[in-house]
Design a protein that fits this description.
By secondary structure, the protein is mainly alpha-helical. The protein has one domain. The chain is about 80% helix and about 0% strand. It is elongated and about 80 Å long. The structure holds zinc ion. Zinc ion binds next to helix 3, helix 4 and helix 6. The site of zinc ion has 6 residues, from helix 3, helix 4 and helix 6.
Length: about 260
């Protein structure tokens, strides 16, 4: 990932697998780090709400297809909302924790490399600074200064080589709460009519609310990903319609036998 300095023959005892691993770490960390940026948190929230909507419009209409009464639909929808939101939160908790542990491990590897072969690490830092546009002489000078201070050297290597921000605190709990809320906010929409009415009226209201929400969320997803608002809105609507139609049909077919 770095071009070697002309006067430095080799970085010596560094194992060959390290470059690839470090490069992977850069890709991983930059992807996950970007999710913490404001706009991407909003995108994650919209995607979570889209998941919640799709899951619960299928569940609500599937149960409603069996015509068991508004109380049963309400119960199933609430259970689906909670089950999905908890599942999303738990998944987020596990994955963010795993990412943090991985980052910690990479930092420890870097720390021991700095202790074991400070010269090679200093040359490496020079290369990384040159790649980022510093002229050779300046890169060497800066690298010498930074390398004289272990804490600063570790910080520089971790940032430049691994793409990890070592000051970033683990936000697993915050991420879990955010995905719980975003899933629940989408899941509650097709359920709303069943708190007020039942029967065909509630089914029609669920479909209308679900369709409008799918269009809006799909459009928002398209705006975030830059892949065309109309296209993503239509795709989200199609997904919701197909999923809901299938589960409604299954509910209608199985309902009389199980009830
Ligand atoms: Zn290094």
């Amino acid at each position: 990932m770095t071009e070697p300095e002309p006067e430095s023959p080799s970085t010596g005892p560094e194992p060959p697998g390290l470059k690839g691993r470090a490069a992977n770490a850069v890709g991983r960390r930059q992807r996950s780090r970007h999710r913490d940026v404001g706009g991407n948190a909003a995108r994650a929230a919209v995607l979570g709400a889209g998941d919640g909507l799709l899951t619960n419009i299928s569940l609500v209409l599937g149960v409603a297809g069996a015509n068991p009464g508004a109380g049963a639909v309400r119960l199933a929808g609430l259970a689906g909302l909670l089950a999905g939101a908890f599942s999303m939160a738990a998944g987020e908790l596990v994955s963010v924790r795993a990412q943090d542990e991985l980052a910690q491990r990479e930092i420890e590897v870097e720390r021991s490399e700095l202790e074991e072969d400070p010269k090679a690490e200093r040359r490496e830092l020079t290369s990384m600074l040159r790649v980022r546009g510093l002229p050779a002489e300046e890169a060497r000078t800066v690298s010498h200064i930074i390398s004289a201070y272990p804490a600063a050297a570790l910080d520089a290597h971790v940032r430049l080589e691994l793409g990890i921000d070592p000051t970033r605190s683990g936000s697993a709990r915050q991420a879990a709460v955010a995905s719980f809320i975003s899933f629940a906010s989408g899941a509650v929409l097709p359920l709303l009519p069943w708190f007020f009415i039942g029967g065909t009226g509630a089914i029609v209201a669920s479909i209308i609310i679900g369709a409008v929400a799918a269009l809006l969320l799909g459009g928002a997803i398209g705006a975030f990903t830059g892949r065309g608002i109309v296209r993503t809105a239509r795709r989200q609507l199609t997904a919701a319609v197909v999923a809901a139609a299938v589960t409604f049909g299954v509910g209608r077919l199985l309902g009389p036998q199980t009830g």
